[in-house]
Amino acid sequence: PVLEGDSVTLNSDLTEISDGDEIQWRFGDEKALIAEVNKKADRFNVYDDVPDGRFRDRLKLDKRTGSLTVTNITTELDKCYEQHKSFHSRSYRRPYIFCFTIYTRPPVPVIRSNSSQCSSSSSSCSLLCSAVNVSRVSLSWFRGNSLLSSISVSDLSFSLSLPLEVEYQDNNTYSCVINNPVSNQTQHLNITQLCQACADSAHCCGSTEAVIRLVLSAVVGVATVIVLLYDIRSRRAEQDQAQIHT
């Protein structure tokens, strides 16, 4: 496995080329010649214009060992390479074949709330981790270092999504990880930001309702006191009037 943009060195397994040694490097099913070494003829050549110029400015040949380095690897170079050797007074041996798979660096996954609205009756929060236009990767949820769930995609480009349910008051550490054999990206879950807001909203609504009830109770209490005072004053006025009449 090789990460796109990296360099790969195809080793000749020689510490130093002798006068009679010859090496050819070929690429792909068509076995296009991309580099050759012939020390006796003093020929150390790279052919980076074939095929299709995809190797242009990407080949470096070690004149001491005959090893070939391919720089700035891209997916269009994801094929097998052959090394053909011949030594002084000996014919070509069976070629060595180098094959590698090129992976792109995956994007950082995105975590979002999967709940359409806050629900005071629910004690859990629904989350969704996703990544778009990815291939040859796995998407996973972790609680601490423990794997909770995972989903994979092969060579085709897909959008991946993986759900997770957590309690509002959960204090564990959760993370969503997307990875391939050579690279990974991690997004940590902020429960307070994505889930606690829903719980806070319900809590806020409950507090508001309590305040309203308190205010109404106070109003009713004041009104009751006023009515009682009015009734007392009215009774006293009636008694005064009765005494005067008497």
Automatic annotation (TrEMBL):
Annotated keywords: Membrane, Transmembrane, Transmembrane helix
Domain of life: Eukaryota
The keyword Signal appears for this protein: no
All residue ranges annotated as the Ig-like domain in the record: 106-192
Organism: Cirrhinus mrigala (Mrigala)
Name assigned to this protein: Ig-like domain-containing protein
Keyword Transmembrane helix appears in the UniProt entry: yes
Alphabetical list of InterPro entries matching this protein: Ig-like_dom, Ig-like_dom_sf, Ig-like_fold
TM spans (from-to): 210-230
